[in-house]
Amino acid sequence: MAPVSSHATARSLPPSTRLRWVFVLLVAGSVFVASVITPPGDGVPTLGPFGLVGADKWLHAAAYAGVAASLSHALATRTRRAAVGGFLGGAVYGFCIELVQALVPARQFDLLDAAANALGAGVGVGMWAVTVAVLAVVLGRD
Hints:
The chain is an all-alpha fold.
């Protein structure tokens, strides 16, 4: 009998799990592309909702909420681990994108953008966890 590997290959994953990872790649790839193209100059409001921070910070938070939530869903074998992994993965990805932007002529590294990315990752994971909990109750799997 051949030994069983503890590492799953892409082919050995169930289709639903593969689809989750494809979705993560699509979301993260879209965020990457949007992060390295030349930003629009006109027509973008300078302040976001409530006038507290710039509109760009809201966009950063929304983008990384999507990255972190999709990553948490892909990692979802245990909710707590998936939430931690989704948050850390989203926040680190956001920081790395900021580092890449330092190399792009029309972009720049911004520590406040990195903070907005991490905050968005936290919100995304929180929304994902609430959704999982509600679905567990509704479907009777609590």
